[in-house]
User: Fold Elongation factor Ts, mitochondrial from Linum tenue.
Amino acid sequence: MMDCKKALSETGGDIIKAIEFLRTKGLASAEKKASRTTAEGRIGSYIHDSRIGILIEVNCETDFVSRGEIFKELVDDLAMQVAACPQVQVVATPYIKNDKVLVKDWIKQTIATIGENMKVKRFVRYNLEGRIGSYIHDSRIGVLIEVNCETDFVGRDLAMQVVACPQVQFVSTEDVPKSIVEKEKELEMQREDLQSKPENIREKIVDGRISKRLGELALLEQPFIKDDKLLVKDLVKQTVASLGENIKVRRFVRFTLGEDTD
Assistant:
């Protein structure tokens, strides 16, 4: 109420100018809020025709705001914006729902409306000829995955698998960089329980442990979340046999809300 009275006083009682005054004040306030810490937020995704996929993290200050409809709509719109504008700086483009406003200005208006700082932390865009799947868990963990096939459910199931297996970093053991393999071998060779073993026995034990470790890092080596008697690679083989088409998992990315990306 006091803000309204002040606005009318500042504009000589002109209601239209008073509204503009309040709006300007709100955006100025949004600029001040832009330096505040954003530790909460949402992970969102957008899939267009299973060919273009976006995974995005947008941060705000509190869990309460992150679960509100205004913030949720902003995250969904920004994911769609990235899909529509792949080759430009997203915040400098016209907002997809109102081309008279730039995305960065729409974010400022939303900050002014909600009363919290917010920012786009990161996003990834996939575009291919196969299928892109995604899975978001409680808006806090999200996965985007590329699968070379024409069947939608495969991508979603595999994205869900990656969410359930936070240790997974690669599609297959063959994708694990040689530097990681060598580091694991170095660590294993130095373990105390192996020092008294003969060299040939120690090598076999180390090879077995490394094989197990690499399996923990690879998506295809995980027990399938819907049937733990089946490895993901066996699920893929069964699906290939039943559908009659080749299926290859190309890559995936996982976002966890608030994780360090440096």
